[in-house]
């Protein structure tokens, strides 16, 4: 508005203008701006500040903004060390990625397929690694700006940071530093969780800044956390996301009971008979839990499951408990499922007042088991107490500090994790009682416009032949109109008895299957295809479906419960011990005609002079300590009933004993690898999570892969004798302990072979060892002295980031190499071996260090040599 300076001299005075309507408009405009700013602050600015700073209170968020310049300057002046990855993608492959991104942004959801993978390279330092990659992440937050999320597979057997499969994603998609702290809390509780680091990434030369590198589900994840390679399962969520894509909502497919169970790394499983058998067993076990034929504690390690749920509750991570984010490891030793923590989504806060685990139907099923419920409440109260007293936040702050130093160079607004809301909630959780758990209900969804699937069909092979299971996922009736079976060898044609009605399934409820026995020849073929059509009441078109192959549901827990009274009636040689925690074997010589399974928590005692003779399929399974006390003149003997090779028995398995097992003067003869039904292990005598002290024990004539296998346990072997082993003598995985004295003789594999272990070997003799006398791998530490190795393929080998220190020892008659250091598994890296006062006589090579690995002889470095380890294995080095 222009203002007049007043009337001109001599001119008539103008009339006063009426300005109030214009003033009103100005006031209204300012008011609109004020209210718009208020809405913008409430709906955009404040949430953005909270997300960027990680602080829930506005004053804390504003304080973090004021501190940002100082953080940025400190991060630039004293930068934190961070690895840099150069990702190189050729133009035509990058164009394919761009097209996939545009498709995902247009439909609001990324739907991936196997052929989305494109070749690329990662340069890290002076290494260039061939990889395959694709976009990853369900929603568009993984595709914003330049920070696109990628799933990456390293090719040709190589690895990066000890990982072959991993993802990179914007730190904001996982709550910045909150996600690795969540994972670390899980790992401190013994629960599996991916490794997670921040890296600086450049794509085709363009710096896209910091990204979170998260390990994917593979054997490297398991081995890095002291687990054996095994099957990792998940619920197939494809129907869930397809319905979101089609209808924009979760609907009836938000139901774990309808989801097929699928493994990670299917190709590697198919190539391994052992993993294939474990896949069938684990899928059947998980399906039995889903169908409520077994309880949670019968299918899962209830302590680890309780701890996983407690950590999720403590961190208010509902996302990690959602059924489609759950991942399960099948432990091949104890045949139980373990949870793997994943995707805490901690940038989103749980806002409910109750227990978040109970918000998810599968969480309620977990906690319907009294043993899981007790473990959950006990661990939750313990962790809540640590949160309230400050001990847990203090530990996490130590871990957080270096992460923040890295993050604040690019995200200076980022403040430390706000533990205030977690502490406040922990005060309430600390009062939780087992009897105080409440139930929640799932709300019904809106009606659907289209259905991704109206029948979930499974083709199951059981003892009586192929069985077709049909389930209705919808809250509406479904009618099967056609159903046919065919294969390349036969065509059974259409099945009779149609149409067939499938009753509705309540949303989130358990669908009742309709089962049909398939008698024809085509159904029995490996390539059988069972397909059909179905219609939904009120729908205008029929839906096609095809059955997926599935193992039969387990009829009960893999290791059945044992009743003590029944056991005593069945085996006359067993009796109650004076100690209520033990049974005992009566003195004498006894035959064991069938597998001997002891009740959980009960140990077994045997006195000097006792002999047990086992039938070929017989074994001993204990979930308590074994106290076997023989004498030099009256040893305890465990041997086959039949002395022939075909009579080899199935050995001893000790699981989670809780106390140390003590053996003295025990003789174990004529064993084979443990097997109980479809359950098989590599060891004839196996201690799993069960400490053991074995003194003056003899293991002879083992036909299996390992005479003695000790896993995740403490072990003392005092003056052992291993003789006539068809493969390895002692195999230790994640062991802490010692071998003192003793003799290893006539061993067709390795005499001592450990991985992920800390082992001392003193004064031990090794004779006629076909493979390696002592082998340490996968990040092990060996201290050895006073060894005598005679006539061995290889003397002492250190591999895969292991360290070996050997002194005052003699190696003679070595066919290949006396001392070796090399890399067999690229994900671990170089190894080292220090030798002091070593005498080597009659070896083809004294020492051989692969380039990058290191051997020193009395302080002198052995020249490194470039060689192909795989070729050496093929040529007979270290070959069993």
Q: Give the class from helix and strand content and strand pairing.
A: alpha/beta
Please tell me what the overall shape is: globular
Can you tell me the residue ranges where pLDDT is under 50 for at least 5 consecutive residues? 1-18, 37-44, 439-448
Distance between the termini: 96 Å
Note down, in words, how this protein is organized.
There is one protein chain. The protein is of the alpha/beta class. Helices cover 23% and strands 33% of the residues. The chain is built from 16 helices and 54 strands. The strands form 6 sheets. The chain has a 32-stranded mixed beta sheet that branches. Strands 1-2-3-4-5-7-6 form a 7-stranded mixed barrel. Strands 14, 15, 16, 18 and 19 form a 5-stranded antiparallel beta sheet that branches. A hairpin with a 2-residue loop joins strand 2 and strand 3. The longest helix is centred in the first third of the chain and has 34 residues, at 20-53.
Strand-helix topology:
Elements: H1 20-53, H2 58-77, E1 84-88, H3 91-107, E2 118-124, E3 127-135, E4 150-154, E5 165-169, H4 178-188, E6 196-203, E7 206-215, H5 219-224, E8 232-235, H6 238-247, E9 261-263, H7 266-270, H8 273-290, H9 296-299, H10 302-314, E10 327-330, E11 337-340, H11 361-367, H12 370-389, H13 391-407, H14 420-429, E12 456-462, E13 465-471, E14 478-486, E15 491-494, E16 500-502, E17 514-517, E18 529-536, E19 543-546, E20 548-551, H15 564-570, E21 574-576, E22 582-585, E23 589-592, E24 596-597, E25 603-607, E26 611-614, E27 620-622, E28 626-629, E29 636-640, E30 652-655, E31 661-664, E32 666-669, E33 675-676, E34 679-680, E35 683-688, E36 692-695, E37 698-700, E38 706-711, E39 714-718, E40 721-725, E41 728-733, E42 736-740, E43 743-747, E44 752-755, E45 758-762, E46 765-777, E47 781-785, E48 788-799, E49 803-822, E50 832-841, E51 845-850, E52 854-857, E53 860-861, E54 864-865, H16 869-874
Parallel strand pairs: 1-6, 12-20, 22-25, 23-26, 24-27, 25-28, 26-29, 27-30, 28-31, 29-32, 30-35, 31-36, 32-37, 35-38, 36-39, 37-40, 38-41, 39-42, 40-43, 41-44, 42-45, 43-46, 44-46, 45-47, 46-48, 47-49, 48-49, 49-50, 49-51, 50-52, 51-54
Antiparallel strand pairs: 1-2, 2-3, 3-4, 4-5, 5-7, 6-7, 8-9, 8-10, 10-11, 12-13, 13-17, 14-15, 14-16, 14-18, 18-19, 21-22, 33-34, 52-53
Helix pairs in contact: 1-2, 10-12, 12-14
